[in-house]
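hey m, so remember when u said the tokens were messed up on ur end? i reran from scratch. heres the input so u can diff it against urs
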Amino acid sequence: MRMTLGSVGKASYNEFAGKRKLLLVPYVMPRGDSAELAALINSYWQEAVAQVQKLQQSLGDIRHLFHEGSVGEGEEALAILNQGNPAGFPHLKPLIDAGAVLEPTEDVESLKETIDLHRCLSVVQASRTVLTRLVDWFEEARTRRYAAIAEQITSKMPPDAVGMLVISEEHRVQFPDDIEVVYVMPPALDRINRWLRDHPSGGEQPDGTPAGEAAPPT
């Protein structure tokens, strides 16, 4: 079942008892050098975590944090999160300090393959045959990547667990039917999307990775 934050309202824990709950937060991060966008994104993460903390009062504490681009465990995973999402990390860290485990979310090879293929697609100019084959390969790799993310979430969350997933809005993860997905949509997200529509050059990260796509782990 899929819900938005507004549809949850003041739902009591008993309404979700026995079900796995996954709070889904869109992954947004600074692009380029715009101070205005950076300020909007900082507000976004403040609002997102505040909404998540409010939801914990009715759904239970988050025990599993899944983040697009997250691989490894422990201090290694924290360092990757800090590097990959420097805007969100200071706001997400209190959830981890309170007991949420930062889980390995990605299959590393599928993630790297998807990113490399996206970069290849950005430079193809002459051959439509090459473009078609690259698109097919990219879609296959992306399907494998999202299937791996779904498998990680399914395997890590026991019955009645509460988890949180930070992932781009354009994701194609298919969640199992026994997981209640609650979409967290802070007001700042609309302001960010309007800013991006007005500034289309902000659509890619400096390394050419698609907006919202995690850079490969180092």
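this time it looks ok to me. The two ends are 36 Å apart (CA to CA). if urs says something different then somethings off w ur setup not the seq
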